[in-house]
């Protein structure tokens, strides 16, 4: 234990009447970039290693730290203290991001809220998991790693046993990260995020520390600067320092009323609470980013061809990120920073538009752009650029940016027929399904699955990629294979993973796509014409074996796999129709009069 950082006296302000119900773990990867590089090249393990970005060593392995190499040291200074320092360029963040995502995914497997903080830190709220474990026999459990300080009292709320269990869970998590990913980590365990984070680096590397609420305030008083508190930023620090509040102990000692003279009442209370180690901010489950973008800044670019080059390079890098993300983008934003040479000022402008999901395919969870898709994206980008810049006049840009701002999400509503039929968004249709009454965003997003479809959004520039205003279409393969009797009887168990085409069927679909492409070379067909063409195509596909009650365009296997009530609804509707090939006029009428009938999902269309 590091005695310099320890103050074993319990806080005089510790109030035993307070409950400490939460159990929070903070995990930080040791010398993150350096570990990733050492995994890639194990020879680096035995040498002092620095990760270089521009002229700075952003981090180093613990071997190099022994020589005095510190984070963000100038390369020249680092080489002075450690002449044998091996430097690896760390400007390409790709592998660090990939490792970061793997850690996050791994931590999700405990089914607790996980909040990602930067690339190598995560908070995990294990409160519920601890409660579950408490129900089992939890006698004589010990704390792995370090306990900041032995308790002087047994907190009546029962937090000690809970934090002991949490520290065991933290140990399991760290072990899994090491076993599965080869990375060593540190962890902090406490009843709140603030203390979990701040106690985490107390025993570095590859160790963990637990702190009880009783010692929160005394631990905080050991922190030399108020700036060490995560939610106190530069401006607040400067304001505090200007009032001679420098260390956390200063902040603890200054009366609340005095702080209220400098800050708002809420802020003053928050500052005082933080200084005492009190924090009730929740662990917020992190999701995937709402947009994925890249920017490139430079001195000045005033020629269109140069702008195009910049965008081409950005797009290539962005497509790699999107590939890893695994979602299909459906909206693209272009950003420019324009320099006003007369006013010596600059400002940003953006334009975005929706893009067709058919520009992308998904394979094994990874998204890639289709052949020709990149060119199509470039032409969309340059069209947006032309809208932002008046090319008849000189322009000066200092930044270009590209971002995919919306992504296709799968509809997961309970009642969604999609759940029974959908699997791979990239595959094409045997059974075309139209949903022109659904206005929910999620199902709209789904629509981008088909090459003929696109989402309608409130984007500023939707005309760049023309799309039908309505209906929003959903097209996918509805082919079901190899289901057991139980699976058929219980639609909820239907395995979407088995809804795929075999290669022969794919050939058939490709043929059909080619046919329909040929047809699309003729002047744009009316909706009615489109529909009948699709019906013909569907009839082509149905290779006999059509069930008695179904029209020929319906796949018997798929139909049989539907829940009984859906089957009955469909059968009743087909019975009411004089011609089971779904006449156009009646289809349209049905769409109008009964917007929510299942039949809508089976309306064939292009
Ligand atoms: P640790 O946690 O003390 O064992 O060492 P690291 O390297 O994990 O440091 P940490 O957790 O503060 O930051 C994670 C990674 O983020 C680190 O490996 C490199 C990068 N990084 C940290 N600070 C900076 C910085 O000031 N600038 C840049 N560009 N990258 C940084
Ligand atoms: Mg770290």
UniProtKB/TrEMBL annotation:
InterPro entries: DNA/RNA_pol_sf, DNA_pol_Y-fam_lit_finger_sf, DNA_pol_Y-fam_little_finger, Rev_trsase/Diguanyl_cyclase, UmuC. Residues 442-471, 576-597 are annotated as: Disordered. Residues 576-596 have a biased composition (Polar residues). One of its GO terms (biological process) is DNA repair. Residues 24-233 form the UmuC domain. Residues 442-459 have a biased composition (Low complexity). It comes from the Eukaryota. One of its GO terms (molecular function) is damaged DNA binding. This is UmuC domain-containing protein.
